[in-house]
């Protein structure tokens, strides 16, 4: 009689063939040519509807989670005698069940060792929870490390504030630990301590650099304001986590978008109190105090002025105004007191100077990239290197961006209202001159290779809406083109109006193939032509661009390759340059086609239906029509002929 055989799905230590052989007496291989009497065949597979967790950092457990899946291996034709050994190895905490897993060849029935929530709760309390509780457990372990290494044994309020200050200066390290733990393997205490045990940053060396001394107060003020914002955000995250999770429409989006907006509103609305706190902090002499002392001061001040009633009111207002759609959205803000001369070679030619921040050359010396991580803050010198180094550039912020070098980010939201509010509050938060805004829209992967070139008339409409129309002697002009801000020669002469780029939202690796999963890579269309202004309302433009993206699927405009290969696009480029320097009216026919295209896209966002309320779409398009009408009135020159259309 033949021994009964089953397929076995493994997702923990049994994925190691040596472990499996020691447990059941048989090995396995993923190469069919090496199968024999002592070696079984296995192939990659995944189990849907479950998530792998390891609350004890020793064993892996599969718990039910509707939107998750576990990567592993399915081992074929495992005999009953081997399964007996596996049963003993897995122990009483697991329950063997019949499941369906998916391989490259289709669905396969298999046995798998699962656990119940009741069993996990009995042994680990709530620590096993796959999302919030699991993350909070790791954060508790980080707290334990700080208690052990920062003023160990002290239970005073000052010691606790110093530990919180240390945590601020470990912000990016904690972020990466949480993401690694959440996405991949369990984390040992040894590894945790190794990652967290870093030298405390110091600003003392700057005191001996005469060229840096004039900027110390400005950077310290930025540090104090940023720590206040971070502490407000942490208070909101810890007190109102349930509310925040229910306002976040998908796990794909940055988890702090709403809490940051609420915190920014609180900081900006309390400008007098915040300014007073900053001034008192700056009274601490740099010769006697180091960076940790200023961070401690800001932590203490944040605790004294945080008002839960104000936080609740802000969250309530945000909740009542949300307008979520389906397209993931993101943005980047560029700020600089030097304007377009912030980066080389224009800086050397103009010899411009920034008396406040010195062109942000000392941004990293004050650990501001760590303190600003929730805002995705870094210094963009337009070299594309993404390295932490002293160089003049734009202060660039983009909530949801987690790594510059790894192009790691998550969309900020799918809500145009929320995106516009974040832009507005961030411009108000930073006491730096706003420069430019980049808006990002996630692309459908199926349409990436089918992207089109925007009609020149539509490009003119967009430049009129967001290109920075300004008065100059003799009339109006489009300043983003007039200052050559969106033209560059790095890859050959091109107009950097819109560009497609790739983003990753996944930090860890797959268990299979040691590479990021396909669904972790997304592509975005980023519009870079927009002038950033303090009082502008970008909500209608966000909706309009989303509609155009859905309706027309536009791509790059105008890349160096496009200009080299197309005489028609070269003519368009020259026409745009002439028009931007001395604009003429945009014809009603072009405006009508432009609005119709945007409306069509917004009406098909949700599977050929609108994702927003109709009155919201009508409001946005009416605002766009009004803005274009005002532009035409200011120009007061007749529209050109059919070539413009």
TrEMBL record:
Keyword Secreted in record: no
A Pfam family per the record: GGACT
InterPro entries associated with the record: AIG2-like (IPR045038), AIG2-like_dom (IPR009288), GGCT-like (IPR013024), GGCT-like_sf (IPR036568)
Name this polypeptide is given: Putative gamma-glutamylcyclotransferase
GO MF: transferase activity
Protein keywords: Transferase
PANTHER family registered for this protein in UniProt: AIG2-LIKE PROTEIN D (PTHR31544:SF2)
Protein species of origin: Anaerobaca lacustris
Domain Gamma-glutamylcyclotransferase AIG2-like: 8-117
């Amino acid at each position: 009689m033949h021994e009964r055989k089953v397929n076995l799905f493994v997702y923990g230590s049994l994925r190691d063939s040596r472990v499996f052989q020691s447990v059941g007496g048989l090995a396995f291989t993923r190469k069919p040519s090496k199968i024999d009497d002592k070696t079984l065949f296995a192939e990659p597979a995944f189990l849907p509807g479950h998530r792998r967790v390891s609350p004890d950092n020793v064993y892996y457990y599969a718990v039910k989670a509707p939107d998750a899946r576990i990567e592993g291996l399915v081992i074929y034709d495992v005999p009953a005698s081997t399964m007996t050994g596996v049963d003993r190895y897995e122990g009483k905490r697991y329950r063997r069940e019949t499941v369906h897993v998916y391989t490259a060849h289709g669905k396969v029935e298999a046995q798998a060792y699962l656990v119940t929530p009741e069993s996990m709760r009995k042994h680990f309390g709530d620590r096993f929870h796959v999302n919030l509780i699991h993350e909070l457990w790791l954060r508790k372990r980080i707290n334990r490390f700080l208690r052990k290494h920062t003023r160990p044994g002290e239970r005073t309020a000052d010691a606790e504030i110093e530990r919180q200050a240390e945590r601020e200066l470990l912000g990016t390290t904690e972020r990466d630990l949480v993401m690694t733990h959440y996405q991949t393997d369990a984390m040992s205490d040894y590894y945790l301590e190794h990652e967290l045990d870093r030298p405390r940053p110091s600003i003392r060396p700057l005191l001996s650099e005469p060229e840096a001394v004039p900027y110390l107060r400005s950077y310290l003020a930025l540090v104090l304001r940023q720590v206040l914002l971070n502490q407000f955000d942490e208070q909101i995250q810890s007190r109102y986590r349930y509310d925040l999770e229910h306002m976040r429409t998908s796990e794909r989006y940055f988890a702090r978008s709403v809490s940051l907006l609420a915190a920014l509103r609180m900081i900006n609305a309390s400008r007098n109190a915040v300014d007073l706190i900053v001034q008192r902090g700056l009274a601490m002499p740099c010769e006697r105090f180091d960076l940790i002392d200023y961070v401690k001061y800001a932590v203490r001040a944040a605790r004294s002025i945080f008002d839960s009633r104000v936080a609740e009111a802000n969250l309530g207002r945000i909740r009542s105004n949300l307008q979520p759609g389906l397209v993931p959205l993101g943005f980047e803000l560029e700020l600089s007191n030097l304007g377009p001369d912030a980066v080389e070679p224009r800086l050397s030619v103009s010899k411009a100077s920034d008396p406040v921040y010195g062109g942000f050359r000392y941004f990293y010396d004050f650990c501001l990239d760590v303190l600003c991580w929730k805002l995705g803050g870094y210094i963009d010198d337009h070299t594309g290197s993404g390295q932490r180094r002293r160089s003049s550039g734009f202060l660039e912020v983009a909530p949801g961006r987690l790594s510059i070098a790894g192009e790691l980010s998550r969309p900020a939201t799918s809500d145009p209202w929320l995106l516009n509010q974040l832009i507005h509050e961030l411009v108000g938060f930073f006491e730096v001159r706003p420069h430019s805004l980049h808006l990002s829209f996630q692309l459908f992967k199926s349409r990436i290779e089918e992207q089109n070139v925007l009609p020149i008339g539509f490009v003119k409409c967009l430049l009129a809406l967001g290109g920075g129309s300004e008065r100059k002697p003799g009339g109006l002009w489009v300043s983003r083109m007039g200052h050559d801000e969106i033209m560059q020669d790095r890859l050959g002469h091109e107009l950097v109006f819109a560009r497609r780029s790739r983003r990753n939202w996944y930090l860890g690796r797959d268990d299979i193939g040691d590479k990021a999963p396909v669904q972790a890579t997304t592509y975005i269309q980023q519009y870079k032509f927009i002038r950033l202004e303090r009082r502008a309302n970008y909500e209608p433009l966000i909706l309009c661009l989303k509609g155009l993206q859905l309706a027309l699927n536009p791509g790059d405009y105008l890349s160096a390759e496009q200009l080299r290969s197309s005489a028609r696009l070269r003519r368009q480029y020259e026409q745009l340059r002439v028009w931007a320097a001395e604009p003429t009216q945009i014809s009603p026919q072009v405006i009508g086609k432009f609005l119709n295209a945007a409306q069509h896209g917004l009406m098909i966002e949700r599977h050929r239906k609108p994702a927003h309320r109709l009155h919201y779409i009508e409001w946005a398009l009416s605002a766009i029509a009004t803005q274009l009408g005002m532009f035409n009135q200011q120009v007061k020159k007749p529209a050109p002929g059919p070539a413009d259309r």
